[in-house]
Design brief:
Strand order of the largest sheet of chain A: 1-2
Distance between the termini of chain A: 61 Å
Strand content of chain B: 15-25%
Strand order of the largest sheet of chain B: 6-7-8-3-9-10
Strand content of chain A: under 5%
Mean pLDDT of chain B: 91
Distance between the termini of chain B: 31 Å
CATH superfamily of the largest domain in chain B: P-loop containing nucleotide triphosphate hydrolases
Number of helices of chain A: 12
Mean pLDDT of chain A: 93
CATH architecture of the largest domain in chain B: 3-Layer(aba) Sandwich
CATH topology of the largest domain in chain B: Rossmann fold
Number of strands of chain A: 2
Radius of gyration of chain A: 21 Å
Oligomer: heterodimer
Helix content of chain A: over 70%
Low-confidence stretches of chain A: none
Low-confidence stretches of chain B: none
Radius of gyration of chain B: 19 Å
Structural class of chain B: alpha/beta
Order of helices and strands of chain B: EEEHEEHEHHHEHEHEEHH
Chain lengths: 301, 266
């Protein structure tokens, strides 16, 4: 059980960064950013490549920079070229496949053999004992959560939030929505790439297909978190990113151990959770309407 | 102050739905003018505002504000000088953000002074509270309330405050009290007059209330088919009545006034 919890904590901390990215794009900007899958692999590829060449720490920064670039492409496609938001993400995502292969030296997977990673470097300091990788991941996650929370309260952060909340009002406040969308997506994708970078170094491998479904899992965790601790203040929403990922990874680990559900079915389960959670308000509304029609139609007849 | 020179705008040109919304319209507005605009449905009143505010570019003609040619400027750049209120009170504020956050955004129109990474300071809050107090709606004690929980009247009052907190060169009011209940409408109108006269804001106001059109401001325009068909100001404006407007419309347009929401009096 301790092992299961440790794994869930470790993965929960890292993937919470993906949910944090989706919180910015999906919840704040109101844009479903499908760049996420490719961007996650991009971060992984860049950071693992850098580690192979002996620069694990630099690798994290390079990965974030690459993520920024990916986010900027998606944002510019939609704000300057009139490509619909969802399509812009898909287009970037497709292009990223080639970019990711390139980042891995045109191979579909690369491994860190004897070279250092940020995790092995941190272990050698002796801090955290056997919890070293959880501690490091948690610190990085918490750091970015705090930065994002602070950013969202600045003038620029307010402008980004208003862009998703009321686009009419944003232009009327002399804010250029094209810029705020760019800023939001750049930040979100740099976070996604960071998560990919950490996973790559933790697992010591990068795989061209390592990001499939990340966007759905990230959303599922965001929604699970919001369901568990509620959607209230920004702080609460940001903490929900971690809670949701921890709960999801606990469930995942338990399923892996007990094999209640075949592991192969997990992606379907995840997809169902997301579909249901997002559809629930509409389903509830429709159900209420049908109930009314049934009752009142009866009375009128 | 504001000059429109031969501005034209046609929607869906070349189709059966072709609509000449503005037809070589020219208008000169003096600094400090408070102009009311009336006209039947589809006369081009809102199109005129959209052209001035930059929601679309005019097909032809030029628009000059304070000596600067703004014909090709995008909305967000024009809004530095132009404040605008819509009929829909939900349009001007961000519902999931608090009152103070909305006001802080409005302050961004002031430009340069505030850093992008600055947060709302206690001095900002003091300023916000003072400004909100003038609305006399008790909002000064609810700075951290999400705007979505306010009533339509309160939201429109807040929008008015946001549009004028940094006094704009030009204020566009597009039937901004029409969607409110009578009490709230009266209150917003009184606040509008108070703020406009205090800051000497140049103001254009579309209204369907003819009584309001003749009693407020110093000049009244009547629009029809994308043109200004009546322009009454000065001495003549002070003697104008709602009945005069209807009669003059019939004489000029050759048909009766048909705004389905028209009001002769309050």
């Amino acid at each position: 059980m301790l092992y299961v919890t440790q794994t869930a904590l470790l993965l929960g901390c890292i993937y919470a960064i993906v949910s944090l990215a989706l919180f910015i794009s999906f919840r704040i900007l109101n844009i479903a950013d499908l760049t996420t899958d490719g961007c996650f692999v991009l971060g992984m590829a860049v950071s693992v490549s850098a580690s192979v060449h002996g620069h694990p720490v630099l690798g994290l920064f390079l990965a974030m920079l690459a993520g920024c670039a990916a986010g900027a492409v998606t944002a510019l496609l939609q704000t300057r070229c009139g490509v619909p938001a969802i399509l812009a993400g898909i287009v970037t995502n497709t292009g990223l496949y080639t970019m990711n292969l390139m980042a891995m030296g045109w191979s579909s997977n690369i491994n860190i053999l004897k070279q250092e990673t940020v995790y092995t470097l941190f272990r050698s300091t002796g801090i955290g004992g056997s919890w070293y990788n959880i501690l490091l991941s948690f610190v990085i996650m918490a750091l970015f959560m705090v930065i994002i929370r602070l950013f969202l309260a600045t003038r620029l952060g307010l402008s980004v939030r208003a862009t998703g909340d009321n686009p009419d009002m944003v232009a009327a406040s002399s804010i250029d929505p094209r810029k705020t969308i760019l800023i939001g997506l750049v930040i979100a994708n740099s976070l996604t790439a960071l998560a990919g970078a950490l996973i790559g170094q933790m697992q010591k491998t990068a795989d061209i297909n390592g990001g499939t479904g990340i966007v759905v899992i990230g959303l599922a965790c965001l929604i699970i978190g919001e369901t568990v601790i509620g959607r209230g203040s920004l702080t609460r929403n940001i903490i929900a990113c971690f809670i949701g990922n921890f709960v999801y990874r606990m469930i995942y680990a338990v399923i892996l151990q007990t094999r209640i559900i075949p592991v192969d079915c997990l992606k379907l389960m995840t997809a169902l959770i997301v579909a249901l959670a997002i559809a629930l308000p509409t389903i509830r509304e429709n159900a209420a309407l049908y109930r009314r029609i049934r009752e009142e139609g009866h009375r009128n007849a | 102050m504001l000059d429109l020179i031969e501005v034209s705008k046609t929607f869906e040109p070349g189709t059966v739905n072709e609509k000449k919304a503005l037809d070589r319209l020219s208008l000169h507005v003096d600094k400090g003018d408070f102009i009311t605009i009336v006209g039947s449905n589809g006369a081009g009143k809102t199109t005129l505002f959209n052209a001035i505010a930059g929601n679309f570019l005019a097909d032809r003609g030029r628009i000059v504000l304070n000596g600067q040619d703004i014909t090709f400027l995008p909305v967000h750049q024009r809004s530095r000088q132009i404040g605008r209120l819509f009929q829909d009170p939900l349009k001007g504020t961000a519902p999931h953000m608090t009152i103070e956050e909305n006001l802080a955004l409005a302050y961004r129109r002031a430009g340069g002074k505030t850093s992008l990474f600055s947060r709302i300071s206690s001095q900002d809050r003091r300023q916000f509270r003072e400004a909100l107090k003038e609305l006399d709606m008790g909002l000064e004690n609810r700075l951290t309330t999400p705007v979505g929980t306010l009533s339509g009247g309160q939201r429109q009052a807040l929008t008015l405050l946001m549009a004028t907190i940094v006094p704009p060169a030009l204020l566009l009011l597009d039937e901004h009290t029409a969607a409110l209940d009578p009490g709230a409408a009266e209150k917003i109108m009184a606040l509008t007059e108070q703020i406009v006269s205090r800051d000497k804001v140049t103001c254009l106001m579309i209204t369907h209330n003819l009584q309001q059109a003749v009693s407020i401001g110093n000049r009244t325009l009547m629009m029809e088919n994308g043109r200004i068909i009546l322009d009454i100001s000065g001495e003549e404006h002070s003697r104008l009545t709602a009945e005069d407007l209807i009669r003059r419309f019939r004489e000029t347009a050759g048909r009766s006034f048909d705004n389905d929401r028209i009001l002769l009096s309050d």
